[in-house]
Design goal:
129 residues, alpha/beta
């Protein structure tokens, strides 16, 4: 297990709580991360405050996560169907993101049933091929 976060404070807290686990500051697009491989990649809350081209960044990040995983990816996002939206947060259209993910993998699960404002997508690789 290894952890990655853009926020230095989160890295510090994580290292204190789990001293035997490797935590790095950065993003999936940093060269020292993007040329590694991981079995599974889980991303939570990473798209919510993206101001510049949030949809483009989201798609680029999903593709990068999928490319460097060997088994699969899971990520969540705020949903465009949220009944209560904050003007400073990014809300993705789950159907658009699902369609994009289907262009990457035929093994995709969309969950939009656990919270009114969120959705999660799982992308799996065919580990038998």
């Amino acid at each position: 297990y290894s952890g990655l976060d853009i926020t230095p404070e989160m890295i510090d807290k994580s290292k204190k709580r789990f001293p035997k686990i490797e935590f790095k500051q950065g993003t999936i697009h940093d060269e020292n991360i993007s040329n590694q491989n991981f079995d599974f990649i889980f991303a939570s809350g990473i798209f919510v405050f993206r101001k510049k081209e949030p949809l483009s960044y989201m798609k680029k990040t999903i593709k990068k996560m999928y490319d460097i995983s060997t088994k699969g990816v899971a990520f969540n996002s705020l949903s465009q169907f949220s009944p209560n939206k904050s003007k400073n947060e990014f809300y993705a259209d789950p159907s658009e993101i699902f369609k994009y993910c289907m262009s990457i993998s035929s093994k995709v699960i969309l969950r939009h049933d656990y919270h009114l404002s969120d959705f999660t997508i799982y992308l799996y690789k065919d580990i038998n091929s």
